[in-house]
Design brief:
single chain; alpha+beta; six-stranded antiparallel β-barrel
């Protein structure tokens, strides 16, 4: 009896072991593998470069003085609207007028001397032709005439210079625009001996501004003329301004071993919100495509675990062959079959990639494979129901996550 009980107990234990092993070998893989899929979508694809810059007028002119003296009169101030040729200021003319009169007298004196020496030379030349005077007397007369002529021409030049300096005492606006800055006061003395002192800075048209942005060397290769730009300024944090790249300057700037290039962006300013000197945070759209087919990059990076998939009951179909340089490989799920598919791709924004050909809107492309969690198993189990029980509305909708 004791031996019989031992046999029965051993048999029961063996049956339990076999049933348990069969359960884990068959059921565990079925309940433990999860495939996530995605389909192509139609939308916008873009890449951007960000940078900071400064708002500046497209054209600004610094107005200075070419003569020294005391500022006698100023006719404009900050923000004054001026026209081309309008008088901005005047330098005291007393010294300049004295110099002009002195040069006038010098010209008159040189003219008298020149006329005398000219007549004398003509007489001496006639006598020399008749051999009535010596060669020395003729050459002396010619020398005095040419010297007087040079002195006369020199005095005329000095008079013209004095006249020009006198004219420079009146400062005119070279363009139509707005006075951005005024660097002098009435009564202040300016010296133009070594350099031209700046009196005013005038911007041509503040309704047309530009952003001078510094773009990092790592990004400059993607920037080109005509690209769309949006930017913000701290003065109007809720406003987004639009612009266009008009110039990529080749001259580099190196600051603390960081190399940047200046990019010029036109910035229409019809409401005059943008003021010179504001800091702009710009976004350059280096690539933009509308209404293109895209697929998440996760699908392009997916590599199937053949062993786990086969164990879970999937078949692997690898008939696509080797992808070329413009192609990528994805895995399309068709029921219990995973098909390797070569697709032609275009641009990418780092998250999604343009699909040129190789996929249809209904293709379910595998993006990820993972073990099911307890929550996944519970949710999967809760969806199973008797074929005789009424189904929940929407139960026939296709799920993007498949478990085996």
């Amino acid at each position: 009896m004791k031996k019989k009980n031992i046999i029965i107990t051993s048999t029961v234990i063996l049956v339990v072991i076999i049933v348990t092993a069969l359960f884990f070998l068959k059921s565990s893989p079925k309940d433990g593998l999860k495939l996530e899929t995605a389909t192509i979508t139609v939308g916008k694809l873009s890449t951007t470069v960000t940078a900071t810059g400064t708002i500046e007028p497209i054209t600004s002119v610094t107005v200075g003085t070419q003569v020294s003296g005391k500022v006698a009169k100023i006719y404009v101030d900050y923000n004054s609207v001026v026209k081309k040729g309008q008088v901005l200021a005047e330098i005291d003319r007393t010294t300049l007028e004295t110099e002009y009169k002195t040069q006038e007298l010098g010209v008159k004196s040189a003219k008298v001397q020149y006329d005398y020496q000219k007549k004398n030379y003509e007489r001496q030349r006639q006598l020399h032709d008749q051999k009535l005077i010596s060669e020395t007397d003729y050459e002396t007369a010619k020398y005095n005439y040419e010297t007087a002529e040079s002195a006369y021409q020199q005095n005329i030049s000095n008079l013209q210079k004095a006249k020009t300096n006198l004219d420079y005492a009146t400062i005119y606006s070279p363009i139509d625009g707005v006075v951005l800055s005024r660097a002098v006061e009435e009564g202040q003395t300016v010296a133009a001996s070594f350099s031209t002192p700046t009196l005013f800075t005038i911007a041509r048209d503040l309704t047309k501004m530009q952003v001078v942005a510094n773009v990092d060397e790592a990004d400059i290769g993607n920037v080109s003329n005509g690209q769309r730009v949006t930017f913000t300024v701290d003065a109007y944090p809720n406003d987004v301004f639009d612009g266009t790249v008009t110039q990529v300057r080749l001259n580099p700037t190196t600051t603390s071993n960081v190399v940047t290039y200046q990019v010029i962006v036109n910035a229409p300013n019809p409401k005059l919100k943008l003021k010179p000197g504001l800091t702009a945070n710009i976004t350059i759209f280096t690539m933009e495509k509308e209404n293109v087919k895209t697929l998440t990059n996760k699908a392009l990076n997916f590599k199937p675990d053949t062993f786990s998939l086969t164990k879970a009951g999937y078949t692997i179909s690898d008939k696509a062959g080797q992808a070329n340089e413009t192609q990528k490989t994805v895995w399309v799920k068709k029921g219990k079959n995973l098909e390797k598919t070569n697709i032609t791709v275009g641009e990418t924004d780092g998250i999604n990639t343009e699909i040129v050909s190789g996929l249809t809107p209904d293709d379910e492309v595998v993006t990820e494979m993972s073990e099911m969690t307890k929550a996944d198993k519970k949710a999967s189990a809760s969806t199973e129901s008797s074929p005789f029980m009424p189904k929940h509305p929407g139960a026939n909708q296709k799920s993007k996550t498949t478990a085996k």
